[in-house]
Design a protein that fits this description.
Helices cover 32% and strands 25% of the residues. The protein is built from 7 helices and 10 strands. The strands form 2 sheets. Strands 6-7-8-3-9-10 form a 6-stranded mixed β-sheet, with helices on both faces. With 251 residues, it is of the alpha/beta class.
Amino acid sequence: MSHHAADVAIRVEGLRVVRGGRRGAVVLANLDLLVPAAQVVGLLGPSGSGKTTLMRAIVGVQTVESGTVEVLGLPAGHPDLRRRVGYVTQAPSVYGDLTITENLRYFAAIAHVGADDVDRVLAEVDLTRIAGRRVDRLSGGERSRVSLAVALLASPDLLVLDEPTVGLDPVLRRDLWDLFERLTAGGTSLLVSSHVMDEATRCDRLLLLRDGELIADSTLAELLEQTGAPDVEHAFLQLVDHAAGRPEEDR
C-alpha cells in the first residue's frame, strides 16, 4: 500500500529520545511508525513505556536526539501546525476559577475562532448543560472533557490525546469513544494513548509500545490472528514474551 502524504497524519523515522543527556536512559529507541489519516489510532502500553514522550515528540515539545517526526506533511512543532494539531495532556490545562464557558471563550479568542465554535464544542463533548459551572467544582472526568473541548475549538486536523479516558466511568468512556469515531468520520485523525487494553477494540489501528520499543503496529484483527490470542491483553503479553525469547506455550 503506497503512503501518499495525504493518507498519512504522522510519519516517524528513527526517533530516538534519551532522558538526561547522551549517556542517560533511552526512552524511545529508533522508532519507526506511520499514523494513517482519518483513523483512531490507539497507542497502548503500560505506564512508563514511552507513550507520553512519543506524543510530546509528535506535538513538537520534546527534545529528540535523532530521527525525524513529520506531522501533516510538516516537521513536528512547525508554526503552521499550531492550529492544525490539538494536544490534550493528562494534566488539565484549563483555569479553575473560570466557568467552562469563560474558559472556552478565553481560548477561542487566542485561537481566533468565534462564539459559534464555543457552542459547537460544548455540544460535542456534552457539557452544554453545565457550561456555567466553575471548573474547580467539576469532577475529573468533566474537567478532562473541558480540556478536550479547548483542543477542538480550532477544528484541528489531528488530535493527540494522552490517556483521555483515565478516571472516567464506563458510560462516559463509551461516549468519548463515540465522539472520536464521529470526529474521524469527519476527517480528523486521532492518536489516543491508553493503558486500558480493552479500549483497543474501539481503535482502527494499534501501536503497542513497551520500554520505548514498538512491538506491534497493526489492526486488532491482524494482531489477534498473528498471535492466536483471544484479546489484546493476551496478544500484548505474548509479544512481550516473544521479544524476551521465552518459549511460546503449546497452542
